[in-house]
Amino acid sequence: MRVLSLDIRYGDRTPKSAPARLFGILWILTGLILCSFFTATFTSALTSSSMLHRKSLLGVKVAVLEDSHAYEEALKQSANVKGTFSNPDTG
C-alpha cells in the first residue's frame, strides 16, 4: 500500500540580507507603536468620557481597602463606608 504524504508549504518566507532583516525589525516595531498609540488613545477617550459622567458617592454604600486612596476618596465624598479590608500591600 502506498502512503500519500502531503506537504502543506505555508509559504513562510524570511529575509536573508541584513537590510531586509533590518526593514523587517523596523516594520514590526512600527506596527507595535501604532497599536500602542491606538490603544492609548481609545483608553484615554473612554476615561475622559467616564470622568464627565461621574456620580456622587454621597450616602452610597462602599467597601474599600483601609489606608488606601480609595478609602480617602470615599470619605472625602461622604460615602457610607460599610466595610474596610486590610491592605495586603501595607502588611
TrEMBL record:
Keywords: Membrane, Transmembrane, Transmembrane helix. The chain crosses the membrane at residues 20-46. Residues 10-47 form the Potassium channel domain. InterPro entries: K_chnl_dom. The keyword Iron-sulfur does not apply. It holds the Pfam family Ion_trans_2. Coiled coil: none annotated. This is Potassium channel domain-containing protein. It comes from Porites evermanni.
